[in-house]
């Protein structure tokens, strides 16, 4: 095989160079196919984390006592909704809450943050003296 780093290729070297490039392209195609297969497997096996949980399931998931869970839910520290006398918690929101390490609701999307900022913005009066 010819050294591909030199600039001194002749017309006679073209078939070898083309064969070398063709082999590299074939290897890249194989690699891309393998990566696509792995990605498909991961997508198919991954379940959605936006599943509703009961309070008992959430306590088990967070390894937290029930009384502590009620206390934090009552204060609004843990993201959850109340349907009648039952709390409904979503696994993905709990994961976000744990990862954020902050109190309050799960992370807001940029659109939600902008909306909250717009709602909290007060207009100044144009009074002249």
Observed structural traits:
3-stranded antiparallel β-sheet, 55% helix, elongated, Arc Repressor Mutant, subunit A, mainly alpha, single chain, 5 helices, 129 residues
Could you walk me through the main structural features you see in this protein, from its secondary elements to its overall organization?
The protein has about 130 residues and is mainly α. The protein folds into two domains: about 15-45; about 50-120, Arc Repressor Mutant, subunit A, CATH 1.10.10. Helices cover about 55% and strands about 10% of the residues. The chain is built from five helices and three strands; from the N terminus they run αβααββαα. It has helices spanning about 15-45, 55-60, 65-75, 90-100, 110-120; strands at about 50-55, 80-85, 85-90. It has a three-stranded antiparallel sheet with strand order 1-3-2. A hairpin with a 2-residue loop joins strand 2 and strand 3. The termini are far apart. The model has no long low-confidence stretch (mean pLDDT about 80). This is DNA binding domain-containing protein, excisionase family. Keywords: Coiled coil.
Characterize the biggest β-sheet: 3 strands, antiparallel
Q: Count of DSSP helices?
A: 5
Q: What's the number of structural domains?
A: 2
CATH class of the largest domain: Mainly Alpha
Gyration radius, to the nearest Å?
Answer: 29 Å
The residue fraction in helices comes out at 55-70%
* Cα end-to-end separation: 88 Å
- List the helices and strands in order: HEHHEEHH
Mean pLDDT: 82
Strand portion, in percent? 5-15%
Write down the overall geometry. Answer: elongated
Q: What is the β-strand count?
A: 3
Looking at the overall shape, the CATH architecture of the largest domain is Orthogonal Bundle
- List the strand order in the largest sheet: 1-3-2
Coiled coil: 18-45
Keywords: Coiled coil
Pfam family, one: HTH_17
Protein name: DNA binding domain-containing protein, excisionase family
């Amino acid at each position: 095989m010819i050294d591909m780093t030199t600039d001194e290729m002749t017309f006679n070297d073209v078939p070898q160079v083309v064969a070398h490039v063709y082999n590299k392209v074939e290897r890249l195609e194989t690699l891309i196919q393998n990566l696509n297969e792995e990605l498909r497997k991961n997508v198919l096996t991954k379940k959605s984390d936006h599943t509703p949980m009961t309070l008992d399931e959430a306590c088990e998931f967070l390894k937290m006592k029930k009384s502590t869970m009620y206390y934090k839910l009552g204060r609004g520290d843990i993201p959850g909704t109340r349907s009648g006398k039952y709390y409904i918690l979503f696994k993905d929101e709990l994961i976000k809450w744990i990862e954020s390490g902050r109190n309050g609701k799960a992370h807001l999307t940029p659109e939600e943050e902008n909306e909250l900022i717009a709602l909290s913005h007060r207009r100044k009066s144009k009074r002249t003296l």
